[in-house]
Design brief:
- With 131 residues, the protein is mostly helical.
- The protein contains seven helices and no strands.
- Helix 6 crosses helix 7.
- The longest helix has 13 residues.
């Protein structure tokens, strides 16, 4: 199947393949391919999903946390609340090339929490911060 054009649809279809939803077979390789198409067009959910795929080494991709964090940053810069939270986790722990920077982690969690991300809200409560 050759798709081009609607990056959001490519990302959504990738999720359907990753989950085996909507009558589609579960296919991590096809999901990764679709996420890459969306990410290459700058679509934040494609960047997030491709980052997650790299973080776990799914779909024939190598496990690569640095690449995952790079993709999370791209999506976070577009206001994607899940990417903001994932990137914050990297700063909190200081992993894979990111400096340990708890203030930056809190800033990103706050952005994510304001975007409605419950996990970021939980993280902020756990460290005594508000959003």
């Amino acid at each position: 199947m050759k798709l081009k054009g609607d990056a959001a649809a490519q990302s959504d279809l990738g999720v359907m393949y990753a989950e085996g939803a909507g009558g589609l077979p579960q296919d991590d390789r096809e999901a990764a391919r679709l996420y890459r198409l969306a990410a290459d067009q700058g679509e934040s959910w494609g960047e997030l999903n491709l980052g997650y795929t790299y973080s776990l080494g799914l779909g024939g991709l190598p496990k690569d946390e640095r690449e995952a964090l790079r993709l999370y940053r791209l999506a976070a810069n577009q206001g994607n609340p899940i990417a903001q939270s994932n990137l914050a986790n990297g700063y909190w722990e200081g992993r894979d090339g990111l400096p340990k920077d708890q203030q930056e982690a809190i800033r990103l969690w706050q952005q994510s929490a304001r975007g409605g991300n419950a996990r970021a809200q939980e993280n902020l409560r756990a460290v005594g911060q508000t959003w």
